[in-house]
Every structure is written in structure tokens, then in C-alpha cells.
């Protein structure tokens, strides 16, 4: 039984050892490819390394890669994608930012970075990133969906607060009523209008039922403001 237990333990440990060796061997080949100027081959090997040993691949990036080289952002992008797949959004965000330092107007990377920001709870940063995406690609579907819903929900939250505060006034004066109406107008002019613009772009690309319903609600509110 002891022999069997020992064999079973070694069997379980072997894959980890082999993977570690495989990552080291692959990184050695990555280093050789880089020294020979074979960037495409190096990136291919690095992707394989990230699949079998992401931590070792990351350490190689920080300690062995010239960050000013042309291949550096490609390696950073590889690490970002792998960390995103494993739902490690802190690391994914870190490496998307590394990539964007060299290619600040890369739309797919900006979208991925915004996703990571959302998953990290950095909603306002995600808004800024998606807005940058739309400056580069006004019809980007993901950015329009996110911003349309974001500004609609913000408007609903602000509208609810203003209405609740106004209801607390037993006998509102004309001045208080005017402030209440002006507050609603400001919300509509800003957040509701932004939401409308983004969601209309969504509908131009595909028939989203949810976007259509939200636009109908905004339309009803708009009519009530007149």
C-alpha cells in the first residue's frame, strides 16, 4: 500500500514538474528567438509559455524583455489576454495598460481595458475609456451599449433623488417648484440625452429589444418635460 501511495503521489506531482520544465524550456527558446530577431516566432513561443506557466512568462517579461523593443507590447498583450481569460482582472488591466502605452489608440485593447476596469470596480475609469473608444470609433457597439445604459441608470438615480426630496416638502413655493423642474431639465439635458444618443447608435447596428425599450422610456420622459 505504501508503494502504491508513493506512486500515486508522484503521479500527481509529475504534471506540475513537467509544466514548469516546459515553461523554462520554452522561455529559453523565446530568449534565443529574440536575440536572433525572430520576433514572430518569439511571440508564438511566448504564447505557449503563457498557456503552461503564466507566472513564469510574466517574470520573463519584467526581467528579460527590453520594454523599448517592438516586440514588448505584443508580449504584454499576450499576458493581458491570458490573465483576462483566467479572470485575473487586476493583472489583465496592468498589461493592457502596458500595451496601450505604445498603442494608445488601439480600439480592441481600449475596449478590453475598459472591461477590466469595470470588473475591478473602477466604473468611472471605464466610462472615460469607453468614451475614448467612441472618439476613435463612433459606432463601436460595446462602448455604445455600456455608455447608453450607464447614463440612463445615472439619470434614473438622480431623477429619483430629486423627486423624493421634492415630495418631502409639504407646501412647496413657486421657487422650490421651479428648482425642482430645473433639476429635472438638467438631468434630461445631460444624462438622458447622452443615453439616447448612444442607444440610438446601438439600434442602428442591430435590433436590440432592451435598447428599444429604454429609448421608449426616454421618449415618454421627454414628452412629459414639455
UniProtKB/TrEMBL annotation:
Coiled-coil region list: none
Matches recorded under SUPFAM superfamilies: TPR-like (SSF48452)
Annotated keywords: Signal
Keyword Signal: yes
The UniProt record lists the keyword Cell membrane: no
InterPro entries linked: TPR-like_helical_dom_sf (IPR011990), TPR_rpt (IPR019734)
One Pfam assignment: TPR_19
First and last residue of the signal peptide: 1-20
Protein name per UniProt: Tetratricopeptide repeat protein
Annotated organism of origin: Bacteroides fluxus YIT 12057
